[in-house]
């Protein structure tokens, strides 16, 4: 077997993220992912061409979209001969897609590939409940008219109440925000610190738009040119006025301002070998060098639902032979401001690092000036599976602009999971 | 939660029905309030010969300003209803001496005032100098436990075994059993051993002490925090994030500090130790109060249901105690208190997991008491019976009514009754009290 090959991030594209039930309310996952991929194809000049594979996913997906990504490819500007498959790892989907494509490239199985993700909180799949579903399936199996009537007679008024997907953990029935609120309390994360982080996110993303950083990262969609959630004029004072959205009483700190809103959107990144990029007149922006996943037992293991990245990062650092301070940029997905702050505090905590991570010394502090320098999910929004692609593309471009460096990506996901990676140039 | 039946029995109609139908007659218990005296009324003291313990008891009675007379002074004919009867049986060297119990109590027992106190002080049987003495001393338990069922109107009967040369340690224990603080402790046996003499202010016995209370946000835990703070302790309250708001209210009321953590997390003990060292340079009192129930018959018990209860109720106290002792967090003179349950003594239908964990807490006390004595740290446990809390309010009506009535006091206890017993264990003056498991159950029939 040959040595693994370097995996370059060559280009990225996304559509602006829209708030739930706003501009993209009538767009399907397939519509938005197609738009993101077509924008990428245009930018990279790949119209009508084939790439090695397209890997993408959506967290909230209609049952009919069982082969969504392949269908999107067929409806896109890529050659119809491009293979594709769907994946899903909750909010880690987008980054995991990039890792999968990267691994195939590294192993020489493909020379190029597109990783992507899409989610809609507006065009959500609504399902019939289990009882009605069983009745309908029995109806389908019934042979005679009388049998069909008998089956239909089982329907009761309450059976027609549909099941709407909820942003809640099936095993705890608590929403992700409620889980994060508990972790925030355990780590003593203050309202002020959360609002400050949210404020920085808006300021940084607004600045990124102002200096034209987003120009070649975004393709406008349905008339939207910027992320709908971005509030360039927000202030700490405005954020401080919001009422708590998760938890209750005087200990509640999490608001709509320091938690990500439900959002619609899609993203895609192009990964390739150096040779493939050169052949196609493209230039590596950065290289995907390391990745890691981890999961925590939040159900009975007394660990926070969104704390898995705190475990994944040190494992990856150990394999890479790096310390937490060996980075020029940190991209920690802002599911909630408190998630980012809890993670950072955990890495600074000697007891957490010793007892839970098994380390001799804490990972230590990071330079906050290097954190989410172009804004993150609190400002941009977080269409679950689209976040990974947003971060990979933006960090690769930032590293390229910087003339090199190293960046850490950390994404927490439902089910107590975490997906993390390193980009370098 | 209110005991409606008890309220009804206090009405004229209720009293008539209770008397004529022979229904339970739960007399409202007297509880300690700010400014209460240790004993509000006269005390009759008796004994078998002159003993060191007897002298110590009389010295204490003088100290607390109780008007007391000795049985030889013809109390039986007196018009005054004594509030307490205290009998020194340490002088009983053979079974023949037991006659003195009947001679002393029979004439006066009927005169005992409502919510009265009967205390018999004996010599720790295992430490007796002769077989005859051992037998005689052991016999006292049958006497007090039976008398506890005979005295009515909120009176309690308890036995205190004192080790040889430990009579000077009796103070805090007698104060507790005489006072309204022991309102719901009935039919119990306390053991007092030797220890260093601690002269503290009985009004603020815990002044300058730091007390860790797990599960401090609500119910019995909040009552424990209140009571220990009343006695002068600084409270370090611990509870899970779900109860953060309730915990904040407790700590805002009492001062001290809060620590949000799950006692079952792998680093709970380390986190508590670090916080205690940082804020207070250590701890003096540790109350393992955090506990849960997940009732299921064993045939229907799921692994996670079993584990959750064992983890919170037993493994967490075990691990936290081990670490706090090893790390030197608990200072000399410190006191560890476990919360067991009568379910851990008597067993309970649907509570194999809970009862296992609570019996394990008793094991923790018994196993560690001699080992911790070398470090001058004491460990004891309370075993609550039916206590009126949010938890018992959810028990179905009939089971709840039975739980309330099947004890000598014919009513449920209050969280403060558990807390007062814990405060007695926590008191540095209780230096001779270790390895005890005291039930706070109104002498429940269960596990008696």
Give your account of this protein's structure.
The complex is a heterodimer of chains A (425) and B (448). By secondary structure, chain A is of the alpha+beta class. Among the domains of chain A are: 130-160, no CATH class; 176-212 and 289-424, Thiolase/Chalcone synthase (Peroxisomal Thiolase, Chain A, domain 1, 3-Layer(aba) Sandwich). Chain A has 14 helices and 12 strands. Chain A has helices spanning 29-44, 68-74, 93-106, 130-141, 145-152, 176-186, 191-210, 236-241, 274-279, 308-320, 337-348, 350-356, 377-380, 387-401; strands spanning 8-14, 18-19, 54-56, 84-86, 112-119, 244-246, 254-255, 263-272, 286-295, 329-332, 406-413, 417-424. The longest helix of chain A has 20 residues, at 191-210. With 448 residues, chain B is an alpha/beta fold. Chain B has 2 domains: 33-192, Rossmann fold, CATH 3.40.50.720; 210-440, NAD(P)-binding Rossmann-like Domain (Rossmann fold, 3-Layer(aba) Sandwich). Chain B is 40% helix and 16% strand. Chain B has helices at residues 4-9, 12-21, 52-63, 99-108, 131-150, 170-178, 219-230, 244-254, 268-280, 303-326, 342-346, 352-373, 390-393, 397-405, 415-426; strands spanning 43-47, 68-70, 84-88, 117-123, 156-162, 189-192, 210-214, 234-239, 257-260, 283-288, 330-339, 378-384, 437-440. In chain B, strand 4 (117-123), helix 5 (131-150) and strand 5 (156-162) form a beta-alpha-beta unit. Chain B is globular. The mean pLDDT of chain B is 93. Classes of the chains: A alpha+beta (425), B alpha/beta (448). The A-B interface holds A 181-183, 185-186, 188, 247-252, 300, 302-303, 351-352, 354-356 and B 240-242, 244-245, 248, 260-262, 264-268, 270-271, 274, 304, 307-308.
